[in-house]
Amino acid sequence: MGKMIGVVYAVPLELTNRLFDGKTKVFVKVTGHESTKLLPKHKIVFYASHGEKKLIGEGVIEKVEFLNPTQILSKYKQDLFIDEQEFLNYVGKRQRILTLQLRGLKKYHKSIQSNEVITMAGKYLTSEQYESLINEKNKT
């Protein structure tokens, strides 16, 4: 198994266009723990979880934090990929949320069929898996 270089996260299809509008974005992810293997410069690949069920784009993680909802809204409210009400509904009463500041977000010209279903928990991405994804992307 190769070196872990990033993650694939499922995002509802109706929210994906907000990720690819050319602005730096902050992605929040509720997890069952307060640790992650993700680091700055790792890749993040987005999987449309409703509708297409395909890999639709990617970006680079610039900053990794675990913050509470108040901290996230005070620090990143304007840069969240979801609006404040969606955010509050999503995080509920959770105390700490994985918060990823992203850059270089780009939507793939053509979505890529995934070999597996990506759950809401996401999936770490190895260098070999990413290379395979890039090869598939370049075929289109």
Structure write-up:
The protein has helices at residues 13-19, 69-76, 84-91, 127-139, and strands at 4-11, 25-29, 43-48, 54-67, 97-113, 123-126. It is an alpha+beta fold. The chain has one domain (14-132): Hypothetical protein (Archaeosine Trna-guanine Transglycosylase, Chain: A, domain 4, Roll). The longest helix has 13 residues, at 127-139. It is globular.
Number of strands: 6
CATH homologous superfamily - what is it? Hypothetical protein
- Quaternary structure state of the chains depicted: single chain
Spatial order of the strands forming the largest sheet: 2-5-4-3-1-6
Tally of alpha and pi helices: 4
- What's the helix-strand series? EHEEEHHEEH
Going by CATH, the architecture would be: Roll
The low-pLDDT segments are none
Helix content: 25-40%
The domain count comes to 1
Shape: globular
Mean pLDDT, to the nearest integer, reads 90
Most strands sheet: 6 strands, mixed
Q: What's the gyration radius in Å?
A: 14 Å
Q: State the CATH topology.
A: Archaeosine Trna-guanine Transglycosylase, Chain: A, domain 4
Distance between the termini: 27 Å
Structural category: alpha+beta
**CATH hierarchy class name:** Mainly Beta
